[in-house]
Amino acid sequence: MQEYTGFNGEALELIRDTNIPEAKSMLDRVLILTNAHTNEVSKRTLGAMVQPQIDKTRFALRHIFGILCNADMQPEAKVDELHLNKLRTNYTKIRSSFDAFFPKVFLERDNPAMAAWVSNNLSDPTVNFTKLYFDLSEMDQAVTLIHERAHTILRIPGHPGTGDSPVCIVPNQGKKLGFDVASRNAYCYEWLATSLHPNYDPTPYEDACKMPTH
Ligand SMILES: [Zn+2]
User: Fold this and answer.
1) Which domains, from first to last, does the chain contain?
2) CB 94 within 8 A of CB 142
3) pLDDT tens-digit readout, 156-197
4) Which of 17, 61, 65, 192 has the fewest CB atoms within 10 Å around its CB?
5) In what helix (H) or strand (E) does residue 118 lie, and over which residues does it extend?
6) Helix (H, G, I), strand (E, B) or coil at 5
7) Beta carbons within 10 angstroms of residue 35's beta carbon
8) Cα(77) to centroid of ligand 1, in Å?
9) Distance 187 CA to ligand 1 centre (A)
10) Which of 177, 211, 169, 176 minimizes the C-alpha distance to 194?
């Protein structure tokens, strides 16, 4: 099967030259910022200036994946260490999957409900795209790829704990599902990657969830 099917040149180039490199860079960032040893070294050499980033990272880890880390990014308990190691292994697998071949198919649909999806047959690595994908911001396009690859590579079908279309989620606040559920939900992998992006701002997500006042 060819790598890209059904895309026009512009769409193909957007995915290949912008979205995939951004997805890789977001995954690399997650792996660096969740590395306790790297954080310890930066804290020792750079001092207090690294603390806000550590605090952002541990806030997101706690709320999205239920992993507790102290102010030095050390896991609080043995169970947190096990979960953090498992999470980092999973992110490493997703990151590697962007260096492997996977087919990408564009499908015309009159009324697409999803921007992208993979088959429930997880041995099929094809990522299918609809025109909705191209309405997303570039950051959302990149995390959508992370989400779809997480399904396939981690073999995690469905979305336990959130359903297929979670609404009113502020990414760094997650959905407080606890590690066992969150680590099987592809949305949680995209939320952490979004939360740790330097341009991440929770405000638009918070505003979108506020009830209109009259
Ligand atoms: Zn999904």
Assistant:
1) 4-199 (3.40.390.10)
2) no
3) 999 999 998 888 899 999 999 999 999 999 999 999 999 999
4) 17
5) none
6) strand
7) 16
8) 31
9) 7
10) 169
